[in-house]
């Protein structure tokens, strides 16, 4: 695929997800302004030069599509921005009661919250077979390994919050990013070979009848897993589960090379199809996923491989190879190693003991959607606070390039992933716009709440000063986010 075609696909995916979210955000401002009796002059999707437009003869509103798809705006009749005829002064935004101004400005972010809740609700309605939260592997030299979390036990709560899926575990752990202390992990022992009596799954999720081979004991225990600068420093770029050291069930795959890329490091350094990896840097390798983890964790680092190779007579002998994994960049810009080797295609069957069917009725799903929206909004604000205090690096900021990359990847995965990412982006837009920064909706809300309390508007001079400061802050924020994007992907 040509680079031009790839760029076009990124832009299309970006527009397909962000465009409707921006349009609906601005529609929130627009429709509430109309309901409050304010005349709307322009409804624009995007900024900058006009690409296409249409003016309504009935309302006089100019609807337009502009060149820069990074936002949009609704321009209302306002005496501060031009002359207003005497007969239309009652339609001007600046002459409205503060409560009307607050409603109009808040309508955009509120619309993004509604979109997020609606999308999450749809996703919760879709039945899905998932891996349950039983621990499949505990990685060595990780926080989980220091307290010997047992393989096979089920995680039922993180920091006192109940969890039923690995996604919920991920979100609870992500909320601890940058922190030092201990993560409280509540475990439930799973007894093999008994009929299931886990009634907790019956009201909000339906557990597959195939899982009747196991049961969760009633006794639970809490384990404090120590963390230090969680997901930062040497853990930077790793996902939450890997950083803690707990991995869901994974199949056992013999570490036998089934295919090699001719431009990969493994082929160039003498590895052959059929070689069985015995160890890497003297660390025993009994499973392909162990080999993958070591290779991914050591980009551009020379590794010593010991492999078993059969000769023409079928005799095996050990071969020593030195291979330096090539440095690649993942979906979130994290660097990982790759040697250009893979296994032969195999059929993977997940044991029934590690599967669960998750399904929610409409009322339960709406409750879950509200809860998830609240949790993610709190987590977003918490992350911003940690950036300000230095607990989390500013390199975690993401800009439009990251949104485009994630959008394209979501279309390649499934429609559920598209809705999930759209919900998260919509929620992020809502939270960001509510920050009390002049230029953003939150800054305007601050002004109008002050006007409501004082009984008169904030002086125009103070509003201009606030606007200039807010604009400068927002530009610095955007430059940093875009710089981070370039460092991740280029």
Give a structural overview.
A hairpin with a 2-residue loop joins strand 11 and strand 12 (283-284). The protein starts with a helix and ends with a helix. The chain has 490 residues and is an alpha+beta fold. It has helices spanning 3-35, 98-125, 143-146, 166-174, 201-204, 240-244, 265-268, 288-296, 362-389, 400-413, 415-433, 441-454, 460-489, and strands at residues 40-55, 62-76, 128-131, 137-138, 154-158, 161-162, 181-192, 214-227, 246-247, 259-260, 276-280, 283-284, 303-310, 316-323, 326-329, 335-338, 341-342, 355-358. It folds into three domains: 3-36 and 96-125 and 419-489, no CATH class; 128-249 and 350-358, Pdz3 Domain, CATH 2.30.42; 259-342, Pdz3 Domain, CATH 2.30.42. The radius of gyration is 27 Å and the shape is elongated.
């Amino acid at each position: 695929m040509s680079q031009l075609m790839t760029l076009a696909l990124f832009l299309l995916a970006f527009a397909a997800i962000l465009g409707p979210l921006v349009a609906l955000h601005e529609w929130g401002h627009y429709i509430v302004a109309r309901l409050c009796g304010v005349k709307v002059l322009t409804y624009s999707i995007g900024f900058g030069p006009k690409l296409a437009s249409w003016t309504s003869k009935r309302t006089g509103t100019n609807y337009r599509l502009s060149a820069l798809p990074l936002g949009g705006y609704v321009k209302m009749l306002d005496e501060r921005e031009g002359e207003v005829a005497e007969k239309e002064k009652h339609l001007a935004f600046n002459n409205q009661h503060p409560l009307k101004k607050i409603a109009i400005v808040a309508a955009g972010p509120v619309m993004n919250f509604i979109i997020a809740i609606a999308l999450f609700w749809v996703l919760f309605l879709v039945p899905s077979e998932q891996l349950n939260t039983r621990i499949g592997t505990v990685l060595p030299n990780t926080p989980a390994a220091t307290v010997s979390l047992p393989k096979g036990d089920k995680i039922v709560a993180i920091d006192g919050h109940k969890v039923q899926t690995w996604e919920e575990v991920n979100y609870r752990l992500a909320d601890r990013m940058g922190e030092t202390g201990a993560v409280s992990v509540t475990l439930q022992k799973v007894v093999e070979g008994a009929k299931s009596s886990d009634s907790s799954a019956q009201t909000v999720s339906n557990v597959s009848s195939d899982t009747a081979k196991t049961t969760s004991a009633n006794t639970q225990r809490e384990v404090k897993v120590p963390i230090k600068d969680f997901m930062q420093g040497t853990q930077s770029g790793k996902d939450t589960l890997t950083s803690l050291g707990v991995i869901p069930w994974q199949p056992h795959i013999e570490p036998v090379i089934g295919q090699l890329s001719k431009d990969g490091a493994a082929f160039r350094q003498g590895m052959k199809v059929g070689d069985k990896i015995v160890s890497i840097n003297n660390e025993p390798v009994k499973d392909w996923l162990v080999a993958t983890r070591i290779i991914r964790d050591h980009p551009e680092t020379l590794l010593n491989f010991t492999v078993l190779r059969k000769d023409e007579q079928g005799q095996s002998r050990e071969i020593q190879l030195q291979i330096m994994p090539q440095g690649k960049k993942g979906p979130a810009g994290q660097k990982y190693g790759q040697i250009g080797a893979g296994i032969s295609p195999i059929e993977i069957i997940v044991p029934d003991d590690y599967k669960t069917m998750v399904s929610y009725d409409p009322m339960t799903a709406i409750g879950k959607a509200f809860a998830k929206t609240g949790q993610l909004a709190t987590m977003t604000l918490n992350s911003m606070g940690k950036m300000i205090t230095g607990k989390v690096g500013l390199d975690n900021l993401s800009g439009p390039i990251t949104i485009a990359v994630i959008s394209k990847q979501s279309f390649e995965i499934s429609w559920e992933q598209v809705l999930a990412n759209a919900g998260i982006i919509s929620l992020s837009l809502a939270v960001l716009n509510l920050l009390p920064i002049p230029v953003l909706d939150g800054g305007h809300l601050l002004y109008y709440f002050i006007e409501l309390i004082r009984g008169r508007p904030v002086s125009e001079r103070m509003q201009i000063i606030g606007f200039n400061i807010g604009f400068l802050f927002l530009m610095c924020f955007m430059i940093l986010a875009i710089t981070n994007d370039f460092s991740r992907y280029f």
